[in-house]
Amino acid sequence: MAVATTPRQEVTELLQELIRVDTTNPPGNETPAAELLRDYLESAGVACELYAKIPERANLVARIPGRGDGPSLLFLSHTDVVLADASEWNADPFGGELRDGEIWGRGALDMKGQVAAEAVALASLAREGFEPAGDLIFCATADEEVGAGFGAAWLCEAHPDAVRCDYLINEGSGDRVELGGKAFYLCSVSEKMSAPFRLRVHGRSGHASMPSIADNALVKAAPLIEALGAYEPERQLIPEVEALIETVTGTRPTSPADVLERARAVAPLLAEMVQPLLSMTVSPTMASASQKRNVIPAACDIVVDSRLLPGTTPEEQQEIVRGILGNGDYELTSLESHGGTRSEIRTPLWDAVSSWVESVDPGAKPAPVCVAGFTDSHWFRQAFGTVAYGFFPSRVMPIETAARLIHSANERVPVDDLDLGVSFLRSAAKSLLSE
Ligand SMILES: [Zn+2]
Q1: Residue 342: its pLDDT value, please?
Q2: Is 88 an annotated catalytic residue?
Q3: Is 75 in contact with 169 (CB distance < 8 Å)?
Q4: Are strands 73-78 and 167-170 parallel, antiparallel or unpaired?
């Protein structure tokens, strides 16, 4: 790519090129995207390295080495995208078309736009001769959307020296919202844990024409499913919610009930945001029993989706669930436990976010949030104790619009927001790594 004249043009062109590389996962095939980024960054004089567990699925790590042993900062992103059904779109999902100030294509929001902005921020700093106190690292990973072990999890384990960092900026939030007449930029500092489990109810099989000689596991499951559905989880006040309510209303909440009441008084959006952050959730979603109409099932399996607050363990969850179900002829099996990590809120990275927000939007403030979804920030928090925030500012596109477009048809990003993103990333690197 020829070097354009402004960061705005550069980020536009780079994103268009990235969208045109089809990295739909599965199968991913992220290597051409990693190579495109490598060529771009090397032309700005930045040293790059590809790390690949298999050749088709490369991760790119680029670095401006620090002059001393100051803190390190990593710009994290992923290059894979989810499937796009072209028949649902009003543009080619892999065309990267620029239309009315917006770039269209799969990944524009999740998250090739941020990939491009992070690369442009790094390249522009390198060209200016920026000498950070500690390493400034760029890491574009494969395989975030499926998480089959080719991306961030593998990098942190197999190549920890390449990606270890003190601070990290990733996807997750960054939307500008108005709450009670004031402007806030959401910044995610933690994530709920996804901890689905299977409830297997035991009985005894038999011919369906003689129910009395059998013990029907499906019928026995019914009251257990009802109990799970009726359960009202105990509410707790996590630090992220306390800080969010304090940021928005000016005073700290005293109880979960107080949180909801005050959130509703400010804006319905705020109440919607905090509701899932007050407790774990338990939702039975799948059921299977006999495979034959005339056979009474000896076992019935219920799959239950469950999200835990950061700090709650799967063991605590199992204990709570046993309390809901009481004694019975069943067993619980954890299906996975994914995420659920948090970073401190008051850190130098928070100060960097905060001072940038105030500089571009006087009177606005960052507001901490815990997100329900999983991001690769988890692997870095777990491996290195990294302070990881999800923050990519978005103020032109409303949060409701973006939420509707991510993983859906007609995904697109305003160039103004990309430009804002580059400005934030450059500012964060300068304020954290200048000492
Ligand atoms: Zn993503």
Answers
A1: 97
A2: no
A3: yes
A4: parallel
